[in-house]
Amino acid sequence: MKKTLNILKKISWIIWLPLFIYFDLMKFISEEIFIYVFYPLIVLSLIYDIYKRKKTFFSAKRTNIELETNNDSSNKIAQLIFGSLFSIGTVCLFLYSDINPVALIFFLTIGIYSIYRSTYINKSLSINIENEQLVIKILPSFEKIIPIDELLQIILTSESIVFVKHDGKKNAIHFLNINESEKYDAIQFLTKKLGNNIDIN
Question: What fold characterizes domain 125-200?
Fold first, then answer.
């Protein structure tokens, strides 16, 4: 459902641009609004995204790890295609139309911003450490809690992560899509937070 809503949202943006041009909606929006309202909002959003990403990654109090799934790869591709089409369309309009360049630069900024966001779309799977428990969440609504003292082993590969308990029971997630660097980072994080009593590999 969430994936469908994201696709519909991107399609609505692509449709909105030609409608904006066809009905000449620029006549209802002054250049000052673009310059002093829309542009600052885009810039602030970009700065906040970069700040949040860096703060989360480098924080000494980091309490969770996020891992990419197959669904995230599809979302990245969709975001990249949307940003590319939006940017190319805006450049073509800039070259072959007489539309106010202030509006076109704003639309081009949205396209470039979308391309940038495709590099770090929020990952669906997160593993949080809260109150001596592993809280495993998969967007949009799945959640599984495993007490740390019940864990014997965590097996992590590029395609899956398996939580093995002392009683032999296993909880597995089989649709990961991570590279070796992300795998190494996850193992380092889990080893640091859980200690050497749990075998992590």
Answer: PH-domain like (2.30.29)
